[in-house]
C-alpha cells in the first residue's frame, strides 16, 4: 500500500479554515482550490519527462516535456472543487467525470454518470474527491477507470478516515493514495470525524 499524508504549513492552515463550521462557501472553495494545487505540486514530482533540444535567444540547450497525458477524474460533485487548482499547474490535462451518490440508509455508493477522454491507457490518472470516508465511491471509480484501461492511478483526497484508507488499500493495492489529513474515524452515519462536513454541500451552498 502506498499512502501519503502531504504535510505542509500552508495546507494545515488552509485545511483549518475549511474545517471551521462558520466558514462560508467562498472561503471553503478558495481554500480547497489552493490545497489541491499545493498537493498536486508534490504528487507530480515523479512525472516522467521526455528530453528534447530547444533554442533560447542565446544558445541551444536541453528542454523537457511531460511524457504522458494527465487525466483528472473528479468524483461528482465534490471532486469538481479540486479541478481548477490542479489545472492551473497542468492546463493541458484532460478531464473525465464520474458521478456517484451515496444511499443515506445503506451508505452504499451508486454510479449515475461516467464520461472519459478518448484515451487514458497510458495516462497519469488522478481521481479527485475531497473526502475518503468508507472508500466505496473511490473503489467504484477506480474499478471504472481500470475497465477503461487506466494503469497509473492515484487517488487524491483532502481528508481520509482510516476505514476508507484501509478499504481502498485492500481492494486496490496498486493505487497510490494521497491526502492532506488522516482523521480519527467514521461516525455511525458514515461521516469523517472530525472531518469538515459534507464537502459537496459546503462547496455549492446546498443542504
From TrEMBL:
Residues 5-206 form the Phosphoribosyltransferase domain. Keywords: Allosteric enzyme, Glycosyltransferase, GTP-binding, Magnesium, Nucleotide-binding, Transferase. Belongs to the UPRTase family. 5-phospho-alpha-D-ribose 1-diphosphate binds at residues 77, 102, 129-137, 198. It is an enzyme of class 2 (transferase). CDD domains: PRTases_typeI (cd06223). The keyword Nucleotide-binding applies. It catalyses: UMP + diphosphate = 5-phospho-alpha-D-ribose 1-diphosphate + uracil. Catalyzes the conversion of uracil and 5-phospho-alpha-D-ribose 1-diphosphate (PRPP) to UMP and diphosphate. Transmembrane segments: none annotated. Uracil binds at residues 192, 197-199. Allosterically activated by GTP. This is Uracil phosphoribosyltransferase. The lineage of its organism: Bacteria, Bacillati, Mycoplasmatota, Mollicutes, Entomoplasmatales. NCBIfam families: PRK00129.1, upp. Coiled coil: none annotated. Its EC number is 2.4.2.9. Binds 1 Mg(2+) ion per subunit. The magnesium is bound as Mg-PRPP. Its cofactor is Mg(2+). It comes from Spiroplasma mirum ATCC 29335. One of its GO terms (biological process) is uracil salvage. The gene is upp. GO terms for molecular function: GTP binding; magnesium ion binding; uracil phosphoribosyltransferase activity. The keyword Transcription does not apply.
Amino acid at each position: 500500500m502506498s499512502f501519503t499524508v502531504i504535510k505542509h504549513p500552508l495546507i494545515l492552515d488552509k485545511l483549518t479554515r475549511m474545517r471551521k463550521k462558520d466558514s462560508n462557501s467562498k472561503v471553503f472553495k478558495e481554500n480547497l482550490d489552493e490545497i489541491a494545487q499545493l498537493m498536486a505540486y508534490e504528487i507530480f514530482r515523479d512525472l516522467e519527462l521526455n528530453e528534447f533540444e530547444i533554442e533560447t535567444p542565446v544558445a541551444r540547450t536541453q528542454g523537457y516535456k511531460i511524457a504522458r497525458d494527465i487525466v483528472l477524474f473528479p468524483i461528482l460533485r465534490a471532486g469538481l472543487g479540486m479541478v481548477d487548482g490542479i489545472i492551473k499547474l497542468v492546463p493541458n490535462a484532460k478531464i473525465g467525470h464520474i458521478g456517484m451518490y451515496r444511499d443515506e440508509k445503506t451508505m452504499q455508493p451508486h454510479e449515475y454518470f461516467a464520461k472519459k477522454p478518448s484515451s487514458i491507457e497510458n495516462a497519469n490518472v488522478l481521481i479527485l474527491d475531497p473526502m475518503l470516508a468508507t472508500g466505496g465511491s473511490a473503489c467504484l471509480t477506480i474499478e471504472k477507470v481500470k475497465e477503461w484501461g487506466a494503469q497509473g492511478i492515484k487517488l487524491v483526497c483532502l481528508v481520509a478516515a482510516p476505514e476508507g484508507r484501509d478499504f481502498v488499500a485492500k481492494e486496490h493495492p496498486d493505487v497510490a493514495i494521497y491526502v492532506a489529513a488522516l482523521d480519527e474515524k467514521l461516525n455511525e452515519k458514515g461521516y469523517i470525524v472530525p472531518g469538515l462536513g459534507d464537502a459537496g454541500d459546503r462547496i455549492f451552498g446546498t443542504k
